[in-house]
Amino acid sequence: MKLLKLLAATTAVAAMLASPAFAQTRIALVVKSLGNGFFDAANKGAQEAAKELGDVEVIYTGPTTATAEAQIEVVNSLIAQQVDAIAISANDPDALVPVLKRAMDRGIKVISWDSGVAPEGRMLHLNPSDVNLIGETIVKLAADYLPEGGDVAILSAASTATNQNAWIEAAKKVIPEKYPNINLVATVYGDDDSVKSTEEARGLISAYPDLKAIIAPTTVGVVAAAQVVTDQDLIGKINVTGLALPSEFKQFIDNGASQAVALWNPIDLGYSAVYLANALVDGEEAKPGATFSIGKVGEVTLDDTNSAAMAAPFQFDKSNIEEFSKIY
Description:
CATH class of the largest domain: Alpha Beta
Radius of gyration: 22 Å
Order of helices and strands: HEHEHEHEEHEHEHEHEHEHEEEEH
Number of strands: 14
CATH topology of the largest domain: Rossmann fold
Largest sheet: 6 strands, parallel
Number of domains: 2
Strand order of the largest sheet: 2-1-3-4-5-13
CATH architecture of the largest domain: 3-Layer(aba) Sandwich
CATH superfamily of the largest domain: Response regulator
């Protein structure tokens, strides 16, 4: 009888260990800061990917403030936990390199996504879209509604944010080439903080009385700027545009503070990041020319910097904001 009980217990334990509930691979999805709707949506996709892959646990984490120092603390904790992979949207491309190199030295696979890390600090990087295309898109969103041109300003996230800085440089390059009547008067930084972004938007409006548009390539900043324009009764005088989550921004399309914004699907971005991190854990090699499956989204091919880009930004306006606000 005791032997039968022992065999039954052993069988039960074996069955539990074989169960998908016991994840074999732990992937940390590290975001710039928690409480950001964009990253919450990315986590939704990440969890979906983990469920599809079947033996993956996604640890959704990040600091409460969008700084490199805070992210370094998070990564050190993940190294101590001996996770299998880290997929990070970085607050600084260089400051995080030493701690991420330490992670890789410990056998942890490291990728960056959304906002990149310098190549020596990661194995591959996933851009949400082509950098130059994003830069041109954010300018075009303003220029389309300024047929005679005019003064515009950029309200970005942190001054060290890899992705925003690259997009802004691309925007500056395209302005004289395709939009010579657009005059970029200033670039300010709200650090992906709603309070600071609001202050910076107010400062732009005060400093530039002829301002016609505010371009915010950050989902936090674009909402803050649109709220300021609404509160100051400047709808129709200053157009707010940039990169926005439809669910967060619909009210400002509806009230006219913005004519149009753009974004890619953050759910797909988080989903794809997990697929790529898992592929590296499974032994696939990140090298120029390598092609990786990203599940239902398709596949990506790495360039000579081990970077890959997803789809072009999608525009949201009065014709479709209602539909997409129900999705993300």
